[in-house]
Amino acid sequence: MKSRTFILFLTLFFLTIGLFLADLAWGSIHISVREILSVFLGKGANGINSEILLNFRLPKAITAILAGASLSVAGLMMQTLFRNSLADPYILGVSSGASLGVALVMMAATFLPIAFVSSGWALIVAAIIGASVVLVLVVGVSFKVHNAVSLLIVGLMFGTIAGSLVSVLQNFSNPDAIKLFIMWTFGSLSAVTWNYMLVLLPVVVIGLGMAFFLQKRLDGLLLGENYARGLGISIVRTRFMIVVATGLLAGGITAFTGPIAFVGVAIPHIARGLFHTASHKILLPATILCGASLLLVCDIITQIPTYTLPINTVSALFGAPIIIWIIIKKR
User: Fold this and answer.
1) How far is 68 from 75, CA to CA, in rounded Å?
2) What DSSP element (H or E) covers 60?
3) DSSP assignment of 138-160, as one string?
4) What's CA 184's distance to the chain center, in Å?
């Protein structure tokens, strides 16, 4: 079993590397792998291709890896926390809360200094606060509502309330702000420049670090709260840390890429299906690699000749059928 797990990890790792190089090469202008390696090794290459590769495709591909890993791990923690196979930041309204936070900043451009509105920190803080507020509300309701389906409905209602507040904001905003926000909701990995990467990368690293720190506590929660307490795990503290980690991961990614649906709910199931385990020691790195690979595939698909598709549309085409399959399988 250990050798099988090692082979699977090795395969996923090289698959991610291969998709990363394919994402760098694919686009309206094809750049060969040999030229990509020449640019990375500093051996010189075509000036235009080098500019496209280093300042557009490379940050976009890195963002795809960060987004896939973050949303997948956030979904895994949500499913463990609520012990519900359909829980994820998008379905539970967390991403809607992040969208509300970003909408508040974008549509308040008339009242706030432009330097504050356009800064990466303003967007990411607003998104994290919005995501965390909704997640705290859902966690609070989970103490009262123990039925899994009812909890999902509550999460959807919180998402609906957040969406309604965004609609109210749009009625009082100028057309430029509305257009900017609507474009943001389509989702785009190319919006993250190197300057924004300096903001996004530390937030994602901290969120993933917290997830790995919590792996034993997450295993304990799978066995039930009473069993976890018997192991000396503080349920309240663990829930709080999961809320913070999920807020960082889902809020941080949503701030810069826009809402990306279904990745968080689909990838943990793919990882469990591949590795046949519930241990978070294996599932956490497995979901990171699977999520990174899926988002790289989605990014490659979006770069069809002449047109660029929204990343949210492509991810939904992958994720929605998996959710339907889960529901049918679970009956």
Assistant:
1) 11
2) helix 58-82
3) HHHHHTT---HHHHHHHHHHHHH
4) 15
The pLDDT assigned to 149 comes to: 66
Residue 76 Cα to chain centre, angstroms: 11
Buried b (16+ CB within 10 A) or exposed e, 189-214: bbbbeeebbebbeebbeebbebbeeb
Q: Tell me what pLDDT residue 331 has.
A: 58
pLDDT band at residue 162 using 50, 70 and 90 as cut-offs: confident
At residue 193, what are phi and psi to the nearest 5 degrees? -85, 175
Domain borders along the chain are 2-330
- Residue 17: what pLDDT? 93
Mean pLDDT over 82-94 rounds to 78
Residue 228, Cβ density class (10 Å: 0-12 exposed, 13-18 middle, ≥19 buried): buried
Element (H, E) at 294: helix 280-302
Residues 283/275, Cβ–Cβ less than 8 Å:
yes
Q: Which CATH architecture has domain 2-330?
A: Orthogonal Bundle (1.10)
Token pair of 32, please? Answer: 């060969």
- Cα–Cα distance measured from residue 109 to residue 230, given in angstroms and rounded to the nearest whole number: 51
- In the prediction, which pLDDT does 314 show? 83
Residue 55 is given by DSSP the state I
What's the pLDDT at 256?
Answer: 82
pLDDT beyond 80 at 113 = no
Backbone angles phi, psi at 179, to 5 degrees: -60, -40
State the pLDDT at residue 239: 81
pTM (two decimals): 0.86
Identify the CA nearest to 79 among candidates 94, 98, 97.
94
